[in-house]
Every structure is written in structure tokens, then in C-alpha cells.
Design a protein that fits this description.
six-stranded parallel beta sheet, 6 helices
């Protein structure tokens, strides 16, 4: 049984990134995947590096949700809105804090997939940037994981999926999303 984690790189209430996470969940459930963890990103409380560090022994509720979701998953979808042509500060900060040997369970033996979310014609750069950073974490520490080369650009997000993640009928978008999910689920 494949276990999946979806990590949302936006702490905004009702963000397009959360909308996209719901669309992935709907698609996974249609494939009979039932173990799907999505930590509540509106509870984001990971401090910036100059304000402290994380310890596996003293994680907050949200930090533990992220750790447990990723550590227990086979496939992890990292999603980020496109901010100034790159990934969000939240997701980068998450990588900085959890990207160590102390949190090795999050990085060993996983398939990592990346998607950028945009209200317009964007999403490519955050997905590429996230894959580069996670690839560096995995490579530097010698973890054995799959860093996917297949990214997804969720463009015009609010025009193709509703607030609950349901399709609004754009066949090209729906097929692209389905192909993206299939690629990663079929790796396991």
C-alpha cells in the first residue's frame, strides 16, 4: 500500500496551493490510495534559522505533523506557490530545518515530486528550485531516494480547479495532473 504525503508551501488560508493539494488528494483517492497525509499549513510555525533550530525531541504540533507525514510516506509531493519566480519562504525554511541527519527518516527511501502553483502562467521555477534543494539534501547526506525529474506547473489554478480541488473541466490540465500523479505512484 502506497503512503503519500502532500506538503503545502503556503501558510495562507484558502491558498491556491492548498486548493491544488486537494486536487492531488482527489486524484489519489480515485486510484484507491487511502493513506494520504496533508499537514495543516495554516498552522505553520517553523522559525526562521536566525530565530532557532528544530530538535526531533521537541517538535510543535505542526512540525510533528510534517515530520510524521513525510517520514511515514513512500511518495512526497512538495507544493509551492510561485513567489518572485521561486519557491515560497515557508517551503525553503522547512527544507533548511528538516534537511539534516537528525531527520533522516524524512529523506531515506522516498520518491519526491515537485509542483509549482500559479494564478497565471508560472510554477516552473519553484518546482525546479525545490527539486534542486531536496536533491542537494539527499545527495549530500547519501540518502537513497528518487528525486523526480517530472515536475508539474499548476497554471491558472483558480480557473481549472475549485476551492475543494474538483476539476472545472479543463481536459488538458486534468490529463497533465493525472499523468504527473501516475508517474510518481507507479514508481512504487
Amino acid at each position: 500500500m502506497t503512503k503519500v504525503a502532500i506538503i503545502i508551501g503556503s501558510s495562507r488560508e484558502s491558498s491556491n496551493t492548498a486548493r491544488f493539494a486537494k486536487a492531488i488528494k482527489i486524484n489519489l483517492e480515485a486510484r484507491q490510495i487511502r493513506h494520504i497525509s496533508i499537514p495543516d499549513s495554516t498552522q505553520y510555525d517553523i522559525p526562521f534559522l536566525n530565530k532557532g533550530s528544530l530538535s526531533i525531541k521537541s517538535l510543535t504540533s505542526y512540525q510533528k505533523q510534517v515530520f510524521d507525514a513525510v517520514a511515514q510516506a513512500d511518495v512526497i509531493f512538495f507544493l509551492s506557490p510561485e513567489y518572485n519566480w521561486t519557491m515560497s519562504a515557508e517551503i525553503l525554511n522547512l527544507f533548511h530545518h528538516f534537511g539534516s541527519k537528525e531527520f533522516f527518516q524524512m529523506w531515506e527511501g522516498k520518491t519526491f515530486a515537485f509542483a509549482g502553483v500559479s494564478t497565471g502562467r508560472g510554477g516552473k521555477m519553484p518546482a525546479i528550485d525545490m527539486s534542486r534543494v531536496v536533491g542537494k539534501i539527499v545527495g549530500f547526506f547519501g540518502f537513497k531516494s528518487f528525486i523526480s525529474p517530472k515536475i508539474f506547473e499548476s497554471q491558472l489554478t483558480a480557473k481549472v480547479i475549485d476551492t475543494n480541488g474538483a476539476s472545472l473541466g479543463n481536459e488538458g490540465y486534468d490529463k497533465g495532473l493525472s499523468d504527473f500523479i501516475d508517474y510518481h505512484i507507479n514508481k512504487n
